[in-house]
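A brief tutorial aside. Many learners find it easier to grasp structure tokens once they have seen a single protein encoded end to end. The record that follows does exactly this for Amidohydrolase. Read the sequence first, then the structure, and try to relate runs of similar tokens to stretches of the chain.
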Amino acid sequence: MKRLIDKLMLLSVYVTVLGLLTTTVQAQESTLPQSIIDQMEKVVDNKAEYIQEIYKDLHANPELPFQEVRTAGVVARELEQLGFEVHTGIGITGVAGVLRNGDGPVLMYRGDMDALAVKEETGLPYASTKTAIDMDGNESPVMHACGHDANTTYVISLAHTMVEMKDQWSGTLVLIAQPAEEPVTGAQAMVDDGLYTKYNVPQPDYFLAQHTSPFPVGAYLATDGRLTTGTTHIDVIFHGIGGHGSSPHHAIDPVVMAGMAIVQLQTVVSRYTDPEEVAVLTIGSVQAGVEHNVIPIESHLKLKLHFSNAETMDKMIKGIHDIVNGIAIANGVSEDKMPTITQSGFGPAVYNDEALMSTIRSATDRVDFVNHRVDNLSVPGSEDAFALIDGIKNVKGAYLFIGTADPVMFAKAKQEGKEFPFTPHEPTYQVDLEGITFGSKLSALVALEILQKH
């Protein structure tokens, strides 16, 4: 999940409230019959070993963004065997499975597939030893250091459970295995490739996604309203005129322009955006030149934006254009050499539907496999899942962070003064096998609640 570490800075509050249930929203009661809940738990338990083996296989065979060919193949194979209408190669490696089961709403469930260029140090018997070539042509170790292997496994598990319980629900289930969440490009790539047009995947009435997190198995975060910020990437290239370091008057220095931009871009947040909205601008990379005495031709800034809504994003992007172009003009850059400003990657802010989240809370209050819940905590990080439903009217969305850390490891870390035993993107990040079963039950519980017969 993109920059989940940022999210966990605020989720550390969870440690201080572990064991408490907050109830700031009047619950809309779950109406799912207890007999169906009991049946679901038995189905998931009976399939747990099979599903855990799939998880181990995915963990041992991670793939980088837009390279998830093997992972997508595992998902497609499972869905095809279960009778889903399966579409592959959406947005390069994305998979969509559709199961129509009579009249009723359309529920879309999404899991992401991509791994990270991190060398695994978990010591697990199924730890990754894989390497891969990234988009820059560099070979690096690869591991699932953010739990996307578990997120993918939940897609497969939900397919098995809902097929086995077809007589207990009605509607259409759409399962999405999404590529490239880490660079926040995969969801939009699937939409742009024709998820709803060329592939005719039904637009959802309800949308659900889950993501692993390093708090204990059995806990989950249930926020209504804004959960995360939106995000996008901006690349700025200043075009100058190169020259000898001793004769800067014969050149137009892109390094100087980059330096001015680094300082002036800080005013984008303080002067272009509403102080009551979330706006963060990070300059994550500055690249220019090679030699001590050579003024280069270009300089390159890589910017990361976080924002609470699309209007704030637009204001930030306008501010970037104003400042960058103004700097170029002030330094004598000709019109044909004005800075190149490009936007890539997009994830809208995640806004969980209040009524749906209230029902989910009510449903999870009825089961023993959920033992802790934290309500209404927004986090500063970002994720691109909701790009799959951006612009679709009246869809009700829910995104859940779920605990997948071994409770013993969590307790030990707490005793040692740590907030978590590990955090996403670390080489020791891991998902307890019981977390696979927990997430499988939670997704099935919500799906059955939404698609139950009336």
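Self-check: The chain has a mean pLDDT of 94. If you spotted this yourself, you are ready for the next section.
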